[in-house]
Amino acid sequence: MADVSTNSPRLILTDTNFRLWLPLFWIGLIAAAALFAPLIAPQDPLAQDLMMERLPPFFMEGSEPGYWLGTDSLGRDVLSRIIYGARIALFVSLIAATTTGIFGSALGLIAGYYGGWADRVISRLVDIWMAFPPVLFAVLLVAVMGTGLGSVIAAIALIDWTRFARVIRAETMVQARMDYVDSARIGGARRAATLVSEILPNVMPSIIALLMLEMGIAVIVEAILSFVNLSISSDDPTWGSMIAEGRGAIHFAWWVLLFPLIALFMTVLSFSTLGEGLKQHFDPVLK
Amino acid sequence: MTMTTAHAHTLDIINLNIALPRGQRLLRNVSLQLEPGEVRALVGESGAGKSMIGKAVLGILPHRIKRTEGEILLEGAHLNAMTPATRRSTVAKMSALIPQDPLTALNPVRKIGPQITDPLTRIHGWSHQRALARARELLDRVHIRAPDRVMHSYPHELSGGMRQRILIAAAFAPSPRLIVADEPTTALDVTVQKQILRLIRELQRETGTAVLFVTHDMGVVAKISQKVTVLFAGRVIEDAATRTVFENPAHPYTQALIAATPTPNVSAEPFQPVPAALITELHRETLAADALYAQRGRR
Ligand SMILES: Nc1ncnc2c1ncn2[C@@H]1O[C@H](COP(=O)(O)OP(=O)(O)OP(=O)(O)O)[C@@H](O)[C@H]1O
Ligand SMILES: [Mg+2]
């Protein structure tokens, strides 16, 4: 008998790989678009040209070269606006999800590990918080704090920290009861050190999965706030504001609505799929 | 201060009471001693409080469960008189645990190596090199064939028996004065159980470490221990040398426990469960003791 069981050879196209690479590809594409927008975008996203209004996408009759996905009712290039819109979408989701994740996970870890009054205070806060309808809450918050990137990020963090707190609290409680925590304590580890070096690595896959989900949600929330004109100044192209504008012209220029919608949908889907994939990838037991 | 007398017991538990927040006692006036190099078996039915004794000694009682009365001394030093930090480092320096379930006693997302060496560097202040060498030596001693490869493995890559051997190596690595072995063979299959038992006994003899060996198997008691404490509902009902307990058990419950143990040489004898009347009587005694305790507390 061998001392160490050998790992079975890994297949190239397993379910996990599929769940990892497909969303990674799309997110990579969007990230590249966001980073290199000025180099990639074929047109100026803000340039209006009334001679060019409502041009159809490239595969339809009457399209113009250089305006691949057509133009909106002010003659602005849809593709270029989607590319620039990726900047705000990704920036907001990255910052908002990280803020939300760190804050919510920290509270979840503390509540789940220390229990007692710390748990009671945090859990009660979560319950009260979750009684508010989230979108209404977001709109209210931005209305109070004023529009702008900071407000959008704060709104997302203030609404969604409860998701991290709840899930991570439950997982921490399960881990805290494991014998390895006792072993570490007997080995002289301090309570806080045990939490950070023994328990945190075990709940990390869940934190990452939630983080990805949160990035998807942040993209949606930003789009919703743009849609109701409460996000960034209305000059900057965002997917939400494009969808809002496209809605009015759906009967004569459906592409203005459809393409940003696809970008939004694919991005949100990619983030949540990637979250699940990463969770399995990082979990040595599930792998 | 922590005074150490010249000929102190390795472990001295005096009149220990452990209770839930509402006052429900889980340990009732428990006293027991371990001399240096001695193996004491701690037996009793499931829920008797065997693990609680070990947890109280090692300072890992669950949140809500508290010591309400009594003293625990490690090598003559009063644990309860220490600050939490001193207490933690004293316990870590002097004692170790061989846990019941090798599946959950190792952190699944950390490699084996650091899980053995962490306490050595953290508590004993050893260099990383020295800790590694010691881990290698002990893994070799518990018949792990490729110590270096194993130290780079994750727990799920190893079998249950291997993990238990690793936990034994980890427990003996810092040369502790006391090891609490909490049913270290229960989660393993029978053939592996024997190896593990033999390994613990060998290492115990080589190192002279005192072992508090929790089990509910009287057969194991006979093989490994010199002294026995029998626990029922958190009470010590018998405390004697192993030989005495088997030849001439004082308490009817102990007699029943021995009668209930199938032994190979007396295999003709039919299997005898502990009589229900005896259990009822013991529970009545426990209730009476609790009533008395509560009355005394009110005064
Ligand atoms: N976390 C807890 N909260 C409340 N009661 C507990 C807790 N853990 C154990 N108990 C109770 O304490 C008593 C003693 O438990 P303990 O684990 O010491 O039993 P044991 O003798 O080790 O039994 P076993 O052989 O099953 O391991 C039991 O009655 C049990 O129900
Ligand atoms: Mg037990």
Descriptive account of the structure:
With 287 residues, chain A is an all-alpha fold. Chain A has a domain at 85-282: MetI-like fold (Orthogonal Bundle), CATH 1.10.3720.10. Helix content of chain A is 70%, strand content 0%. Chain A is built from ten helices and no strands. Chain A has helices spanning 15-35, 37-40, 78-114, 116-130, 134-145, 149-176, 179-186, 191-227, 239-248, 255-282. The longest helix of chain A has 37 residues, at 78-114. Chain A is elongated. Chain B is α/β, with parallel strands linked by helices and 299 residues long. Chain B has one domain: Rossmann fold (3-Layer(aba) Sandwich), CATH 3.40.50.300. In chain B, strands 6-7-8-3-9-10 form a six-stranded mixed beta sheet, sandwiched between helices. In chain B, helix 3 crosses helix 4, helix 3 packs parallel to helix 6 and helix 6 packs parallel to helix 7 (190-207). Chains A and B meet through helix 7 and helix 8 of A and helix 2, strand 6 and helix 3 of B. The structure holds adenosine-5'-triphosphate and magnesium ion. Magnesium ion binds at residues 50-51, 182 of chain B. Adenosine-5'-triphosphate is lined by residues 20, 26, 44, 46-52, 62, 65, 216 of chain B.
Compile the SSE list and pairings.
The complex is a heterodimer of chains A (287) and B (299).
Chain A: H1 15-35, H2 37-40, H3 78-114, H4 116-130, H5 134-145, H6 149-176, H7 179-186, H8 191-227, H9 239-248, H10 255-282
Helix pairs in contact in A: 1-3, 1-10, 3-4, 3-6, 3-8, 4-6, 5-6, 6-8, 7-8, 8-9, 8-10, 9-10
Chain B: E1 11-19, E2 25-34, E3 39-43, H1 50-58, E4 66-74, E5 77-78, H2 84-94, E6 95-98, H3 112-122, H4 128-141, H5 147-151, H6 160-172, E7 178-182, H7 190-207, E8 210-214, H8 218-224, E9 227-232, E10 235-241, H9 242-247, H10 252-259, H11 276-298
Parallel strand pairs in B: 3-8, 3-9, 6-7, 7-8
Antiparallel strand pairs in B: 1-2, 1-4, 4-5, 9-10
Helix pairs in contact in B: 3-4, 3-6, 4-6, 6-7
